[in-house]
Every structure is written in structure tokens, then in C-alpha cells.
């Protein structure tokens, strides 16, 4: 447990580098952002296609554990106006492109995407695809809430190309569910899973969380055993991020109600053990999948990719985020949209896009980003590459990790060990030059384990 005490510190999940808190906004402008988008589009559209992330922030109730950007309302009349803004934002990008975009990957996130009616979700996707070509090997996915994902939702999205759904399960214990304000009967999970399979969805993911208030080893085991009986293709087993200074809803309970570091580690180990026994393989940061799943295959052939949507199999270089708070990655720059729905809609109405901050990548950033992606996606990094500037203090960290069994270092080839997978975020952080010279992450990031 000494390693837990040493490495259970606040570090990023590395869906980008630099991570958002360390963006250098002084050298970023909307003009430069659009130039980066066009440059990246020209380099990647015909080769790999591009990705779209669409943020639908609305939820009917607040899940207090959640750290996502949300808008709580039961007023469904907000759907049309918000969709109109997303479509207008997309049309602005379309006008920038020199050719018809090829959509390789699309993900609906939230909030609760299934807050929107089935008819409106289909309308939105059809409107976005009107001026685009869908890649023959595309991957369209969405996040579904088991309580309100209907058969009609699944059918409507299937009709416009969706083949993967991710259900937020989190935990099935009644006390835990009540505490985090997300009460969803197992029956709803069973129905949502059954309907997806009947309609023809090819991949079903379950999100589970450990470290929630009042969880025990027995309750986590019970949740995992019940969910694995439904045989999802993938499992995301996330560490709960307790950041009440950022998410006031988490003040509904206190640190006293949460498992301490050592016990939280036991929750993870129990979950990992059960997943392994049922044939789920450790893919990388928080993710497990069956051997037949595309995510596992990509991990095996070293083609796994990671971006703001998490782990993906497509490897696209241009990711455009549409909607309030969405973040885009155009290889040479990052940009984030206005977070408040009203500010987002106003910005789109005035200027076509809603970016309010961003980061222009330096050569050093690009090399570091590749290094971190190699660690996070492949578990291997060639340290002899002179483009990666590794300082003495970083070598000291790496040698310490080798002694601790987290990595191996042979002829300057870093390789993550099987037991080191649990410390993946820590290994990535060794190469995070901006975090090491910047402010500490205590009030920015969740703890790593």
C-alpha cells in the first residue's frame, strides 16, 4: 500500500496534452484556430476522415457525483433552439472546408443525450450529415441513461448509423444510488441492453464507478456480477473524481462517506479481479473489453487512439466539438466552446462558432503529446527519440518506477508492466512538462487511483 500513498495524487486523465488548465491562451486567436482546422482538415479528411463530438448538456435531475457540464431542467422545449445552434455551428465549419467532410466518428455526450426525443435526435444527425459523407467504416456512439433510453431512442439512432451505446450504470446499490441522486433499477438496465441487442447494436459499454460514497467491496462485487451477467462488450471502470470545489453537487456528502485511499484500492482490485475472471482484458486507463471487441483488437495491434472522447479505434486527427463546453482538437491547436448554454447560443448567432479559449501547439507540445499517447495507448515508449526532451528529474522518476515494478526500462525502451497499468496516469504525468513547471494540480485534477 506504500505505492498507493505515493502515487494517489491529483493528475490528469490525459485526454489531451497539454491538459486544459495548462493551455497558453496568450497565443490563441479565433483566426489562428480556423487556420489550424483547415490545415488539419486538408491533411486528414481524405485519409482518415474527421470526428465530431456533440455535447447535449440537458438532464432532468442532477447526479451529484457527476463532473460533466450540465443544465438541469424538465422543460423539453429547449431542445429545438439548442439543436438549431449546433447545426448553425456545423454549417460555419462546413463553409471553411475546401471539400465535403468525411465523418469517421461521431459521439453524442452529455448531460443526457436521451433527454432529447428520438425524433429530435434523428433530426439533428440527419441535418449534420446533409453536407457530409459518412465513412464506410464509421463509428457512431452515444451515452444513454438506462432510465430514459427507450426502444424508440435506440431505433431512431440506429437508423442514422449508430451501432454503439454506452450506458451509465455507476453502481446498483440502493444506498449508493440514493446518495448520488441516481436511482435506476436493474430492470431498466436489463431492458435498455436487451432492446439495443434486438435492434442490432454491435457494441454495448457499461460505465461503472468505484470510490463512491458508502461503497463496499461486497457492494461493488454485487454490481459487477449483476452487470456482467448482461455480457457488455466493454466496461469502463472509473475512479470517482471527488472535486467539490468544482462541482458543488458533490457537497451532498463528505469525505467521511467516501472510502479512504487503501479501501478504494481494494474496490478497484476486486472489480478488476471479477472482470478478468469473466474474460475482460485491461485495455488502458479505466477500460476493459472482451477479446472480440474492436477496442481490444486495436490495443493488441497498437492502433488504439485517445482524445477528448476517451479511447477510440479510428485514429482521426481532427476532432470538432459542437455544443456548449465542447472541446475541439485540430492537431495544431485546441479550442473550447462557451460553457453556458446562453453564451454558446449567442456566440454562434453572432460569429458562427463559440470558441472562447484555446491553445496553439508548440513543436515541444506535439512531441510530448505523442509520447503521452504512446504510453496511454500502447504501453510502450521509445525514450531514445531525441525529440522528447527528458530531464534528469524525469529519469529519476522513471528509474524509481522501474524499481517499484511499474515500468521496465530496457535499452531506453519504456514498457508498462501488468501491475503498472493501475499507475498509468502517473507514468504519463512524468512527461507532462507543462504541469511540472506550472501550478500544482491539487485543486484541478482528481486523484489518480
Structure summarized in a few sentences:
The chain has 449 residues and is an alpha/beta fold. It has 15 helices and 19 strands. It has two domains: 20-360, tm_1862 like domain (pyruvate-formate lyase- activating enzyme), CATH 3.80.30; 363-437, Arc Repressor Mutant, subunit A.
What does this protein structure show overall?
The structure is a single chain. The protein is globular and about 55 Å long. The strands form five sheets. It has a nine-stranded mixed sheet, with helices on both faces. The chain has a three-stranded antiparallel sheet with strand order 14-15-16, covered by helices on one side. The model has no long low-confidence stretch (mean pLDDT 93). It has two domains: 20-360, pyruvate-formate lyase- activating enzyme, CATH 3.80.30; 363-437, Arc Repressor Mutant, subunit A (Orthogonal Bundle). With 449 residues, it is of the alpha/beta class. The chain has helices at 2-7, 30-44, 78-96, 118-129, 151-159, 174-179, 186-199, 217-228, 261-277, 294-300, 341-351, 363-378, 392-403, 424-430, 433-437, and strands at residues 50-56, 58-59, 71-72, 102-110, 133-144, 162-170, 203-210, 234-239, 281-284, 287-289, 305-307, 310-312, 319-322, 327-329, 333-337, 355-360, 380-382, 407-410, 413-416.
Task: Lay out the secondary structure.
Layout: H1 2-7, H2 30-44, E1 50-56, E2 58-59, E3 71-72, H3 78-96, E4 102-110, H4 118-129, E5 133-144, H5 151-159, E6 162-170, H6 174-179, H7 186-199, E7 203-210, H8 217-228, E8 234-239, H9 261-277, E9 281-284, E10 287-289, H10 294-300, E11 305-307, E12 310-312, E13 319-322, E14 327-329, E15 333-337, H11 341-351, E16 355-360, H12 363-378, E17 380-382, H13 392-403, E18 407-410, E19 413-416, H14 424-430, H15 433-437
Parallel strand pairs: 1-4, 1-13, 2-3, 4-5, 5-6, 6-7, 7-8
Antiparallel strand pairs: 8-10, 9-10, 11-12, 14-15, 15-16, 17-19, 18-19
Amino acid at each position: 500500500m506504500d505505492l498507493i500513498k505515493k502515487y494517489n495524487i491529483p493528475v490528469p486523465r490525459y485526454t489531451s496534452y497539454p491538459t486544459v488548465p495548462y493551455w497558453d491562451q496568450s497565443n490563441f486567436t479565433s483566426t489562428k484556430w480556423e487556420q489550424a482546422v483547415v490545415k488539419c482538415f486538408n491533411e486528414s479528411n481524405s485519409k482518415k476522415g474527421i470526428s465530431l463530438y456533440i455535447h447535449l448538456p440537458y438532464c432532468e435531475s442532477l447526479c451529484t457525483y457527476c463532473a460533466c457540464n450540465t443544465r438541469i431542467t424538465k422543460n423539453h422545449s429547449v431542445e429545438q433552439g439548442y439543436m438549431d445552434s449546433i447545426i448553425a455551428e456545423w454549417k460555419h465549419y462546413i463553409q471553411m472546408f475546401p471539400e465535403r467532410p468525411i465523418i469517421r466518428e461521431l459521439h453524442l455526450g452529455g448531460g443526457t443525450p436521451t433527454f432529447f426525443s428520438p425524433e429530435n435526435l434523428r433530426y439533428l444527425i440527419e441535418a449534420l450529415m446533409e453536407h457530409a459523407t459518412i465513412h464506410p467504416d464509421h463509428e457512431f456512439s452515444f451515452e444513454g441513461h438506462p432510465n430514459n433510453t427507450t426502444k424508440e431512442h435506440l431505433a431512431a439512432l440506429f437508423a442514422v448509423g449508430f451501432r454503439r451505446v454506452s450506458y451509465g450504470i455507476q453502481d446498483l446499490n440502493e444506498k449508493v444510488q440514493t446518495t448520488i441522486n441516481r436511482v435506476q433499477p436493474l430492470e431498466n438496465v436489463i431492458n435498455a441492453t436487451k432492446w439495443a441487442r434486438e435492434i442490432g447494436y454491435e457494441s454495448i459499454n457499461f460505465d461503472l464507478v468505484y470510490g463512491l460514497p458508502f461503497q463496499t467491496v461486497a457492494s461493488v462485487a454485487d454490481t459487477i456480477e449483476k452487470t456482467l451477467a448482461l455480457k457488455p462488450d466493454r466496461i469502463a471502470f472509473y475512479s470517482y473524481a471527488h472535486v467539490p470545489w468544482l462541482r458543488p453537487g458533490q457537497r451532498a456528502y463528505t469525505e467521511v462517506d467516501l472510502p479512504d485511499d487503501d479501501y478504494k484500492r481494494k474496490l478497484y482490485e476486486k472489480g478488476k479481479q471479477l472482470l478478468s475472471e469473466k474474460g475482460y482484458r485491461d485495455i488502458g486507463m479505466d477500460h476493459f473489453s472482451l477479446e472480440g471487441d474492436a477496442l481490444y483488437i486495436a490495443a493488441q495491434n497498437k492502433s488504439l487512439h485517445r482524445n477528448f472522447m476517451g479511447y477510440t479505434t479510428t485514429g482521426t486527427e481532427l476532432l470538432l466539438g459542437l455544443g456548449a463546453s465542447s472541446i475541439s482538437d485540430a492537431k495544431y491547436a485546441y479550442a473550447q466552446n462557451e460553457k453556458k448554454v446562453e453564451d454558446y447560443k449567442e456566440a454562434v448567432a453572432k460569429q458562427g462558432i463559440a470558441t472562447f479559449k484555446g491553445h496553439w501547439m508548440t513543436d515541444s507540445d506535439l512531441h510530448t503529446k505523442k509520447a503521452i499517447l504512446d504510453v496511454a495507448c500502447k504501453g510502450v515508449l521509445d525514450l531514445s527519440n531525441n525529440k522528447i526532451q527528458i530531464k534528469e528529474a524525469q529519469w529519476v522518476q522513471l528509474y524509481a518506477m522501474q524499481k517499484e515494478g511499474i515500468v521496465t526500462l530496457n535499452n531506453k525502451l519504456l514498457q508498462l508492466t501488468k501491475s503498472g497499468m493501475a499507475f498509468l496516469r502517473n507514468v504519463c504525468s512524468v512527461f507532462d512538462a507543462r504541469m511540472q513547471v506550472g501550478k500544482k494540480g491539487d485543486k484541478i485534477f482528481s486523484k489518480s487511483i
